[in-house]
Amino acid sequence: MSTKILLLEDDKLLNETLEDFLDEEGFDIDVALDPYTALELTYKQKYDLYLFDVNLPYESGFDLLEKLRQSGDTTPTIFLTSREDKASMMQGFGAGADDYMRKPIDLEELLFRIYAILRRQIRKERMRIGEYELDSTAKTLYCGSKALDLSKKAVDLLMLLVEFRGEVVTNDMIKSRLWAAGQSASDGSVRVYITQLKKYFPEVIVNLRGVGYKWEASEV
């Protein structure tokens, strides 16, 4: 069965260009020009991936994704946007996005990003990290059959660090992923969760003072 993608883009020419490209790559594409149509489609069909524009009629792509996430929809989402400011990028991740691409869209890069997300989705529910296993659904870390003492937010942070292993994960990225919009987040809280993780991964989590953290192990 081919991968089912919902494309939401109000620019008709770009919408058609992306639809034709992804169709040629073997994906099953549904398209929408506005968020209301896209929302209706999500009620009728289960998708493997959303590609959402941000600047849309009626409401933004951020608003739409927040509604979907609040309803329990966890479908991976890539935002496609002309916005270049860091605040918008953080807002997108805060709304629940998995990736964020700036326009003009490089089609080859988009394809790489789509495949990267799909690979993450088809991984086993339990991911092996060194001597441990992570149940990403239950947000529980195991050593053998024993569930370890790790908070849910610490597990979210672990998943973020592993996802971006070898790259710097900034404090802003962490706060955006761990706390919903409007919730209070602090550097002190982040340090608490880092301390929890370092109990089990003392060698691979590197503190970049004033910037963020890095998972230095190349493999999981």
Overview of the structural elements:
With 220 residues, the chain is an alpha/beta fold. The chain has two domains: 4-121, Rossmann fold (3-Layer(aba) Sandwich); 152-215, Winged helix-like DNA-binding domain superfamily/Winged helix DNA-binding domain (Arc Repressor Mutant, subunit A). Helix content is 40%, strand content 22%. A five-stranded parallel beta sheet has the order 2-1-3-4-5, with helices on both faces. Strands 6-7-8-9 form a four-stranded antiparallel beta sheet, with no helix packed on it. Strands 10-12-11 form a three-stranded antiparallel beta sheet. Strand 6 (126-129) and strand 7 form a beta hairpin. The protein is globular and about 50 Å long. It starts with a strand and ends in a 5-residue tail after the last strand.
